[in-house]
Design brief:
heterodimer; A: 180 residues; two-stranded antiparallel sheet; two-stranded antiparallel ribbon; 5 strands; 9% strand; B: 503 residues; 3 strands
Amino acid sequence: MAESEKEIVVEDPNAPAEDSPGVANTRTVDIVVSLLLIAFAGLMAFDNWRTGMGWAPDGPKAGYFPFYLSMVLGGASLYGLVVAFLERAGAQRIFVNRDQLRRVMQVFVPTCLFCLVTQWLGLYVASFLLVAGFMRVIGRIAWWKSLLTSFIFALAMFVTFDVAFDVLMPKGPIEALFGH
Amino acid sequence: MEALGLLLHGFEVLFTFKTLALMMVGLVLGIFVGVLPGLGGPNGVAILLPLTFTMDPTSAIVMLSCIYWGALFGGAITSILFNIPGEAWSVATTFDGYPMAQQGKAAEALTAAFTSSFIGSLVAVLLITFLAPSIASFALRFGPPEFFAVYLLTFCSFVGLGREEKHKTLISMSLGLLLAGIGMDTVSAQLRMTFGWSELYRGINFLVAVIGLFGISEILLTMEERLALRGHAASISLRVVLKVWKDMPRYWVTLLRSSAIGCWLGITPGGAIAASFMGYNLAKRFSDDKESFGKGRIEGVFAPETAAHASGTSALLPMLALGIPGSGTAAILLGGLMVWGLNPGPLLFVEHKDFVWGLIASMYLGNIVGLVMVLSTVPLFAAVLRVPFSAIAPMIVVSCAVGAYAIQNAMFDIWLMLVFGVVGYVFKKIGIPLAPFTLALVLGNRAEDSFRLSMIGAGGDMRVFWSNSLVGSITTLALLLLFWPLIGGAFGRMRSALVKKTA
């Protein structure tokens, strides 16, 4: 047996470089997340205080349980904030570097667009566009392969969910043409 | 033996053409999910859950649990052939599995991994068969205070025993519990934390959050990494299988020890990943030839795989008997139960005998069929990795969106999923564990209800949690576990002080 048959090799030509400059360090992200969580805890605490966080004659009011939870969340986040400020090591650890962020955005932005398109054109058209576009633009796969794959995929999803399992998906004008 | 009779009944439920077909479909999908980069057990189960929405609960759980077994088997393929652990608990399998593949013994390593996974699961399933019914019937006597104490114990053990930083576990858990409370309050029917936003009246669905946290965020994380891979193609011949099986009884101590560790850690919440490492390390410690570990020793494959599967399977025990999941995947299955209209908890054993015993029977059969399937089709699944990730990634995104939408037919949920995807990505990167979050989100409402019902019953007296020896000891144990790091530290200091004194 030839050696090439025994090995499976998949290349990744545009992999993120190890030495790509950092965009944010872990400490900064830690601090930002802690602040956001504290703000969220504060908001929740306020709302639960408004709902009623005390005791009614028959037991705790609706806001009681979540109010104290938001206190726990706020307290733990505050502790995390202090730790992040005091700790110096986190400042050296890169949270994400530029290449990595670029790659993450390559998936994230199309995913957001996909959600938007789903709202207007329905899920199946959106998924056809997402798969075809992603394969072509990011994977640099030949046009015909991308279009064929995504068409088969969208059709398979439609048959599986809408026809076979009766799980109905949002649909747009194009499916309406075919009477769905 | 009452359990045996019920188990036979379970097999009867299982042996219909439809259920068996669903089982095979589940296994194949599961192995795919386990092999594909960026997908593992919990993600796979979460994404494929919507397929089951219109099924009857028994078929649904059989298919879903088979996806889970398939994913567990599939994880071993990539660990051994490509040195890429599909899941955190496959990491220990790469230590000896990959060296074996490099030495041209990939087939032996794979056979060892699959067979030991099977043994681990089998031990755990036996445990479930005979222990779960008695735990459930014991728990039938539980009232709200007891249930709250058990929930408290679950949460506290995550904080006390987890290996992550304590405040991060606490953040993850309290955030999950808070989000679970959004929407209609189940006791007073009052709306809370919705800020008048009608989309939030329904509350935040647990499964939508899970699909975002595990599905979308995993895609983002996978894209960050270098996706090139180089590995060995392997096919397993019957000769190799028989040879490995013949040698296997020699390692019975390792297998038994790993099974025991796995079962124990699987039942305790938050211990699933630790099991495979512990199994591996103990096998190494008790071995006469420690040096050969890490260089392609078959025992180094047996030990972690047995433990990982034993824990993965036994994590379903508390879920079935008490309605408390022992792992992330078990939490998702629990979420599924609620979608299918079943109420998790000890009553399941009384009210839905078909469901429970069908599931347990499918654990036996699913593992046997899965073992045969992976042994015979490894080359096929390994070739899946040749499919470019740029084709797989968008398909996974679409499947996630389908899953999120299907749960409540709400477009809002797709956006929510996206938000949770980003949250999961950031949390994973700064070390906030997601398992407590998942657990809190699925248990939150029931924990709160049981707390408030006990308060209503006791007229607001907190002493109800120490009102009898059962609830008292569970509550005390929970608090002990919560403060275990502090108590353990104090013990350590006391002991070192004593040692100094005597020295």
